[in-house]
Write a structure and sequence with these properties.
Chain lengths: ~575, ~250
């Protein structure tokens, strides 16, 4: 075995360090670079492969190309109302207002969208959007977005180290000043010294067993920020997408885009009943995700599910030509993975863990976290979606706030002095990492990860109770107690087991805050459903925040700023006809 | 439970240049894909087994490998279609980083060199684009950069030319077929891109998991483009004048 010396590392210096190369990270990189900052991007996956690449249905912006009545106000109101007033209205306002410009800008970067017959960007219907608002390219919107941004990054002076895992954010004098990472391809450590750090690390859907999320969505950004002393918020708020594949077992959880329902797909139980008629007579299949997911869950629980524990999703009534044109990805996904031809047969679907609404708390004006010099954007940040995210609002979030974060980080670096990261801090972190290697009689990290994921799925999914949540927390704390026992053979070079050692820490942090938050929130709101407290409570129109004080986890309640009167009016337009 | 044998390529160049195939018994679940088998080994037998993957939904193009000698996405290849002994080895065209993971970074260097999208000047905003133009370009925009086509292309495998390879021909075609794009890439294709080295064997399009007609719809039209504009002295002259005007 090649022994690696712990004092063998590369030092890198930059203005802005961006962790994450999904839509948010890449958009931030472009902007920071265009604002004159020197930029380094680090990513766990290969450039162009980040989680965002999987996004299917579309990106929301009130262009009004299909429904001319649409405008930013309605988009804003939809976001606030469906987020059940838990989100930060200012983020929703900025998002809705800037969305159209970001779409046209992406087009100028080279992206292509499907068109209306007169050549404008086509928009499709999606759950709980008042108007047809989602710009899309078939069901490959995320791919188009990533490829376009990747191209822009490659043609700028931006340094990308992909397949590089960040394990720690360095702090000095109360601000973020860099990070430690190792490059999987070479096994080499790098200590990055930067004036500003942006976390664009995505979500944590892999905390659950059944999930649509990619490998990298293990909540690393939440843990990195939390360990550095930044505040997290709404950690109990996780979105379960109504429609994931259920069969065969190997593909359980794989997403079935909401685009299927947006294009006219209907949900049926095993008796052939269109059950959304009972749960949501007006919006039916296109109600908000939490509503549809719970309805499906309920049908299955009450014995009206399919053979493999799902419900049916039917689109074949729209005809083969339409389906192949509008949903080609879904057609091949079912054909290739399940042997089902959706132009002729029904799909079987059930809810799957999909999106993390909670995350790192940010200032809506500049995306800075509570730790100076540390910024966050994309799924890693929180506040835009409140208790429930609208489809298409994540991709636009990446563009709008990726750009704004790039701008504010670049601005921040103009006044900030680089701070030296001490050799001691670096070596301490490197030895922590190498400490997992070749321990005698170590516990396999995957064993604990799998136990944790099973526990979360069993006790903290769509339907939560005090009893289940407490049971889950007990198990989680036991797993946490065994964290020091884990280890793996081999060296630093491309060692999945070593990466799993870190991911377990991220998952434990995320899971613990999720459970503690869910126990505290004794009500049902948006995606958080407590069957022992099925009603929403005014008392809980507040956010639960988390931060570390010394070695102690502290929680507190905070409230979002009240909607100003002119905004109340705008929101009223939408709320009026949903209630 | 039924078991199959996975025969997996192992090599860690940071330790030694030795290559070997290890055998592992893997229980089979219905609908399981080859990547699940590799994960089973990683989770239960050897956590150091290196594999690149991300989406497990055939959307990111990370998990390319040779399965029973054929280039495939591991997450899209069903175990039940592969028999009782499944041999998994890394792509051959690239240097091995470790086990099933190869170094594909040269592709990003190529992408950096391809002249990027530049819209025509003076377009009225917001842009209008014909639906048919989007459809035509879409075939190429489906590419998930799995590099399986690069892996199978004999010109790339021989490492003796400057040919950019099929993936990048697809990229150039997608840019070129954008109706509002204003860049002429024929010079790049001819000189730096080495498009002349492709002898249209069509092996690349046979392995494309996105079923892109790489040779027929991207490479051949691009080659014709070179012949049309590059070798036609009059057209070249006109182009030069146009470029100067701008
Ligand atoms: C199947 C699917 C379909 C979807 N469809 C839609 C849709 O139609 N519309 C919509 O709006 N939203 C959709 N979403 C949601 C949306 O895709 C995601 O929320 C969004 O892409 C997140 O982007 P991001 O840039 O924040 O992070 P990600 O794309 O998740 O990227 C995170 C980045 O951080 C890196 N990273 C993480 N941890 C570390 C670490 N420790 N060290 C270094 N790097 C690290 C990762 O490698 C990656 O590069 C969908 C999601 C899924 C799963
Ligand atoms: S057609 Fe051209 S690019 Fe494709 S495999 Fe043959 S030589 Fe390579
Ligand atoms: S063209 Fe096809 S085979 Fe080649 S990289 Fe793209 S998706 Fe893969
Ligand atoms: S893991 Fe993404 S294509 Fe296989």
């Amino acid at each position: 075995m090649s022994e690696q010396s712990i004092s063998d590392f590369t030092r890198i210096e930059t203005d802005v360090l961006i962790i994450g190369a999904g839509g948010a990270g890449l958009r931030a990189a472009i902007e920071a670079s265009d604002n004159g900052a020197k930029v380094v991007v680090l990513s766990k996956s290969l450039l162009g492969k980040a989680h965002t690449v999987m996004a299917e249905g579309g990106v929301a912006a009130s262009l009004g190309n299909v429904d001319s009545k649409d405008n930013w106000g309605i988009h804003f109101a939809d976001t606030v109302v469906e987020g059940v007033h838990l989100g930060d209205w200012r983020l929703a306002e900025i998002n809705a207002k800037e969305a159209p410009d970001r779409i046209y800008e992406l087009e100028k970067y080279g992206a292509m969208f499907d068109r209306t017959p007169d050549g404008r960007i086509l928009q499709r219907a999606f759950g709980a959007h008042t108007y047809r608002r989602l710009c899309h390219v078939g069901d490959k919107t995320g791919l188009e977005m990533i490829r376009t941004l990747e191209d822009q990054v490659l043609h700028r002076d931006i340094k990308v180290h992909d397949e590089t895992v960040v394990t720690k954010i360095f702090k000095k004098d109360g601000r973020a000043v860099g990070a430690l990472a190792f490059e999987m391809r070479t096994g080499k450590f790098m200590a990055i010294k930067s004036k500003a750090v942006i976390l664009a690390t995505g979500g944590g859907g892999r905390l659950f067993k059944v999930t649509s999320n990619s490998w990298e969505s293990t909540g690393d950004g939440f843990a990195l920020a939390f360990d550095a002393g930044a505040t997290l918020m709404d950690m109990e708020m996780v979105q379960f997408h109504p429609t994931g594949m259920v069969y065969p077992p190997g593909v359980r959880g794989m997403l079935v885009t909401e685009g299927v329902r947006g294009e006219g797909g209907i949900l049926l139980n095993s008796k052939g009943e269109r059950f959304m008629k009972t749960y949501s007579p007006n919006k039916m299949e296109l109600d908000a995700r939490d509503v549809v997911a719970r309805s499906i869950y309920n049908e299955i629980q009450e014995g009206r599910g399919t053979e493999h524990g799902g419900v049916y999703l039917q689109i074949h009534h729209k005809g083969a030509k339409f389906i192949l044109d509008k949903l080609p990805g879904m057609h091949s996904q079912f054909l290739e993975f399940a042997g089902v031809d959706i132009t002729k047969e029904n799909m079987e679907v059930a809810p799957t863990t999909h999106y993390y609404m909670g995350g790192i708390k940010i200032d809506p004006e500049d995306n800075q976290t509570t730790l100076p010099g540390l910024f966050a954007c994309g799924e890693a940040a929180t506040g835009l979606h409140g208790a429930n995210r609208l489809g298409g609002n994540s991709l636009i979030d990446l563009l709008v706030f990726g750009r704004r974060t790039g701008q504010s980080a670049a601005k921040y670096t103009k006044d900030a002095q680089p701070a030296d990261v001490s050799e001691n801090d670096i070596i301490e972190e490197i030895s922590r990492v190498t400490g997992f290697l070749n321990k005698p009689s170590a516990v396999n990290p995957y064993e604990l990860i799998n136990e944790l994921r099973d526990t979360m799925s069993k006790y903290a999914g769509i339907r939560r109770t005090e009893e289940n949540l407490t049971t889950a927390l007990d198990i989680l704390l036991k797993i946490k107690g065994r964290y020091s026992e884990i280890g793996v053979a081999g060296n630093v070079r491309f060692n999945p087991g070593l990466i799993a050692c870190f991911e377990l820490h991220s998952l434990l942090t995320t899971g613990e805050l999720l459970l503690r938050g869910a126990i505290q929130r004794k009500e049902s709101r948006g995606a958080h459903f407590r069957s022992d407290y099925p009603k929403m409570s005014e008392e809980f129109k507040r956010n639960i925040t988390w931060h570390m004080e010394g070695n102690e986890v502290k929680s507190s309640f905070s409230t979002m700023p009240e909607l100003p009167p002119e905004m109340v009016k705008i929101v009223g337009q939408v709320e009026g006809h949903t209630q | 439970m039924k078991e199959v044998t996975f025969i997996v390529y192992r090599k860690d160049p940071s330790v030694s240049e030795e290559e070997k195939f290890e055998e592992y018994k893997v229980p089979v679940e219905e609908g399981m894909v080859v990547l699940d088998g590799i994960h089973y080994i990683e989770n239960n037998i050897d956590p150091t087994l290196a594999v690149r993957w991300n989406c497990k939904a055939a959307r990111c193009g990370s998990c390319s490998a040779e399965v029973n000698g054929f280039p495939r996405l591991m997450c899209k290849t069903r175990v039940e279609d592969m028999g009782d002994r499944i041999k998994v080895s890394p792509m051959k065209a690239y240097p091995v980083v470790k086990d099933l993971v190869t170094d594909v970074s040269q592709n990003y260097d190529i992408e950096r060199r391809i002249p990027e999208f530049k819209p025509k000047e003076g377009l009225q905003e917001p842009w209008r684009v014909d639906e048919m133009d989007v459809k035509r370009s879409m075939e190429f925009r489906r590419c998930i950069e799995c590099f399986l086509c690069q892996n199978i292309c004999h010109v790339i495998r021989e490492h003796e030319s400057n040919y950019v390879g099929p993936r990048h021909m697809v990229k150039i075609a997608s840019l070129d077929m954008h109706p509002l794009d204003d860049v002429d890439r024929s010079e790049f294709l001819h000189d730096e891109g080495g498009a002349g080295y492709c002898n249209i064997t069509k092996c690349c399009q046979e392995v494309c998991p996105e079923h892109i007609h790489i040779t027929d719809n991207a490479i051949i039209p691009m080659k014709e483009r070179i012949v049309g504009s590059y070798y036609d002295p009059i057209e070249r002259a006109i182009k030069k004048i146009r470029r100067k005007k701008r």
